[in-house]
Amino acid sequence: MKAFYQDFRLGILGGGQLGRMLLQACPNYDVYNVVLDPDADAPCRHLASRFVQGSLTDFDTVYRFGKEVDLLTIEIENVNVAALYQLEREGLTVYPQPRVIDIIQDKRTQKQFYRDHGIPTPDFLLVDGKADIAANLDFLPAFNKLGRGGYDGGGVRRLDTAADLERAFDAPGVLEQLVDFEREISVIAARNAQGEVAVFPAVECVFDPRYNLVDYLLAPSQSTPAVLARAEAIARTVVERLQIVGILAVEMFVTRAGEVLVNEVAPRPHNSGHQTINANYTSQYEQHLRAILDLPLGATALKTPSAMVNVLGAEGHSGLARYEGLDALLAIAGVNLFLYGKKFTRPKRKMGHVTILDTDMERLMQKVEKVKQTIRVVAQ
Questions:
Q1: What dotted CATH number matches 181-379?
Q2: Residue ranges matching CATH 3.30.470.20 in the chain
Q3: pTM, to two decimals
Q4: Which residues belong to CATH 3.40.50.20 in the chain?
Q5: CATH fold of 9-94, please?
Q6: In the chain, which segments carry CATH 3.30.1490.20?
Q7: CB within 8 Å of 178: residues ≥ 6 apart
Q8: For the segment 290-319, what is each residue's pLDDT rounded down to a tens digit?
Q9: 67 CB neighbour count, 10 Å cutoff
Q10: Alpha-carbon 245 to chain mean position
Q11: Per-residue pLDDT tens digits for 202-232
């Protein structure tokens, strides 16, 4: 592979906010980048060294794009894996590897991977549609998850009784037993091609019940030391079993009995790692670059406790975005604002995030509430 600081081209499939923040880490390593995304106004459009508009799921588009770069990575899983396999066979380095993306793209194969490798996860059944669910009503209450296509809270429906059967997906998916959990946490881990693994401290995710999206997160998680050690060990195990090169977000449940169960994983930078830009010695984005460039991984320790609040489009507002409350927001000590460059807002669309730093957890939580009440994304 060419030296990354010379005439080297990093290809990135996906031009959303995760790609945007990955691009912001590239100049420090003098990495020339090329981004593919179907949206002409994608967040990466004006930050990429070169931007290509095109489908991420079309074989020919992804294949041609891959032939123009020296290393290919992703910022979203919904890409044409067949093209990635072909590029890999022809000698292109693709990280994370196509086989890893293939496993994770379908929740059915992902869940079966956990079972086959002894990774703790909620009990589940593989189902082909409503008929299979109807034949297993004794498994309820459970979550019915689409095998493919669910993202950011989509593709998931809770089924409590037979009366909910009409709400089930009539498509291949998973029936996952309801877990009586105390909290949800996430651990981001990275692995380079030499097999070096580094794990970030666990963060605690608080979900908005209306949208099934992360409302805010706290770093570090307030779980017990034993739970945190268990969670970090599980994340390391998942990374090593997958043999992934790159970064992996491992989302987990902590049950009221203190058990730690893997919910889902994402083979890319993740919403639960945004705060690492300000709060950790190495950001998740720099760590991903280090991993795929096969450099030594960076230190993952927290410099200070932090929180991250997602900035979502307001209900009832669709159109050109306007941000209310910025002056008051930026007057709060320890606040860092990240806007994603999305021209149009719509309800619950991720438009940005706010990272908050404070050494005192009580003050940190007070600032979280203040931030949530201060910034608002509306249509002009």
A1: 3.30.470.20
A2: 181-379
A3: 0.95
A4: 9-94
A5: Rossmann fold (3.40.50)
A6: 123-177
A7: 122, 141, 142, 143, 158
A8: 999 999 999 999 999 999 999 999 999 999
A9: 12
A10: 16
A11: 999 998 777 667 889 999 999 999 999 999 9
Put residue 298 in one of left, alpha, beta given phi > 0 → left and psi -120 to 50 → alpha. Answer: beta
Give the right CATH number for 123-177 from 3.40.50.150, 3.40.50.920, 3.40.1280.10, 3.30.1490.20: 3.30.1490.20
Pairing of strands 335-339, 319-324: unpaired
Condensed to tens digits (0 to 9), the pLDDT of residues 163-194 reads 999 999 999 999 999 999 999 999 999 999 99
Give yes or no for a contact between 24 and 47, defined as CB atoms under 8 angstroms apart: yes
Per-residue model confidence (pLDDT) at position 151: 61
Tokens 């991977």 correspond to what residue? 113
Q: Is the dihedral of CA 171, 176, 178, 181 positive or negative?
A: negative
